[in-house]
Amino acid sequence: GPAHLFRLAGKCFSFVESTYKYEFCPFHNITQHEQTFRWNAYSGILGIWHEWEIDNNTFVGMWMREGDSCETKSRQTKVHLVCGKSNKLAYVSEPSTCVYSLTFETPLVCHPHSLLVYPTLTEALQRKWDEAEQLLYDELITDQGYKKILKEIFEEAGLLKATEENEVEKQSKKITLEFETVEKCSKEYKQLSEEIKKLRVLLGQHGIAYKGNSGE
């Protein structure tokens, strides 16, 4: 993310609301501590630094995920970064069960360009983005295609975590690329046919009937 925000790393900011104390440690985690004299006062993790929330090519928040378990899921928190005179946690809410929302004020995000994604990327990824912009301008890709390329760029930069679905998609893409030419396809078909022949012989040796289908 933005290099100037790294000066927040290693620091923690507290906020007390009602009987709870919240502690936000940027690029690390968020914890919640119940302020009570009960022997079993709650103290737990509301999320561990995971990835950025990016909207309109701007960093708008930090996602802290995989906190303590809560019913069937893990607690998670989105930290909104807003301009303020000093670094402080200003507001905490729980918009849905075990999903928290924190507002963090800091002078580090007051400059209009302070949260732009593009300047934080490597030259290679900036070029990739420029190419995507050109393709969109030339109407060679759709808006959806453009957003997909941007998502890939952000994942490659480590700003977003690649989901399992993406990994599966990448693997299937690799497979489809292997069969791009007729020559490769014929070669694979030949190999598979040989394997089937061997397996049929093997099944016959063990007295197991082989049932083929019409599309064999």
Automatic annotation (TrEMBL):
**Which InterPro entries is this protein grouped with?**
DMAP1-bd, Gtb1-like, Man6P_isomerase_rcpt-bd_dom_sf, MRH_dom, OS9-like_dom
Name a GO molecular-function annotation.
transferase activity
An example Gene Ontology CC term for this record? extracellular region
Domain DMAP1-binding, by residue range, is 117-216
Main location (coarse class): Golgi
Signal peptide range in chain numbering: none
Any Pfam family hit: PRKCSH
Per UniProt, the keywords (alphabetical) are: Disulfide bond, Glycoprotein, Golgi apparatus, Secreted, Signal, Transferase
Q: Where does the record place a coiled coil?
A: none
List where in the cell it is found: Golgi apparatus; Secreted
Q: Which residues form the MRH domain?
A: 10-112
The record describes its quaternary structure and partners as:
Homodimer; disulfide-linked. Hexamer of two alpha (GNPTAB), two beta (GNPTAB) and two gamma (GNPTG) subunits; disulfide-linked. The alpha and/or the beta subunits of the enzyme constitute the catalytic subunits.
Give the protein name, as stated in the record: N-acetylglucosamine-1-phosphotransferase subunit gamma
Gene that encodes the chain: Gnptg
